Amino acid sequence: MSEREASMPTRDDVGGWSAQQRATVARLLAESIDQSPATMRSPGRRKLVLAVGGVGALFLLPWLAFLSATLPATSSGGAWRTAWVGFDVALVAAFIATVLTVWLRRQVALLALVITSTLLTCDVWFDICLSWGTAEHWGSIAAALVELPVAILLATSAAMLMRRSFTVIAQLRGQDPTPVPLWRQPMIHFASPRWKPEDESSDSAR
């Protein structure tokens, strides 16, 4: 065993440290850890999400005014105008939240991306279903050809951010940072660490 390996703290040593000492060492390790290629930034995708989100919000603002002026107040006894205008207001808010959180690089961008993607998918579904057999049918399909790729872009961007977050956490825990499919990724608060006490004893015996 080399002198450097012999000076490595053991689990018992770390257990005797104060919470502040452990936090200090954790910060130092986080600053010096090598960045995995899986966590490298993708400036092209970020710019694309910002551009698409900004265009979507700007387009929907005049569309809201158009719907408010042209949609009937009720249809078959329902508040038709309120339902659709309210839905598009929520979609505009989601687009704005997506642009702001991605621009500021906030972790909550994950939620904004997922919510916006979901709202866009719902918009496509209801537009096509409710316009089926009417004069607006083909217009709804044409809009879907725009909205669905945007929804896919936002959903895959959210998945990419999640994988990168899990990769960084694995690195800080001293685990294998190789990305795994999200459906196989355990919840980080309940994931048992891959490092076990016998690993330390086996290293010391070498």
Q: How are the elements arranged and paired?
A:
Blueprint: H1 3-6, H2 11-15, H3 19-32, H4 43-70, H5 80-103, H6 109-131, H7 137-172, H8 197-205
Helix pairs in contact: 4-5, 4-7, 5-6, 6-7
Q: What report would you give on this structure?
A:
With about 210 residues, the chain is an all-alpha fold. About 70% of the residues lie in helices and about 0% in strands. The chain is built from 8 helices and no strands. It has helices spanning about 5, 10-15, 20-30, 45-70, 80-105, 110-130, 135-170, 195-205. α4 runs antiparallel to α5 (about 80-105). The chain starts with a helix and ends with a helix.
> In terms of structural class, how would the helical and strand content be classed?
mainly alpha
N-to-C SSE series? HHHHHHHH
Strand proportion: under 5%
**From the alpha-carbon coordinates, what is the Rg to the nearest angstrom?**
25 Å
Number of DSSP helical runs: 8
Q: Give helix % range.
A: 55-70%
Mean pLDDT: 79
Low-confidence stretches: 194-206
Tell me how many strands there are.
0
Which outline best applies?
elongated
Strand count, sense and barrel status of the largest sheet are:
none
Distance between the termini: 7 Å
Tag the structure with descriptive keywords.
single chain, 206 residues, mainly alpha, 0% strand, disordered C terminus
Quick description:
The chain is an all-alpha fold.
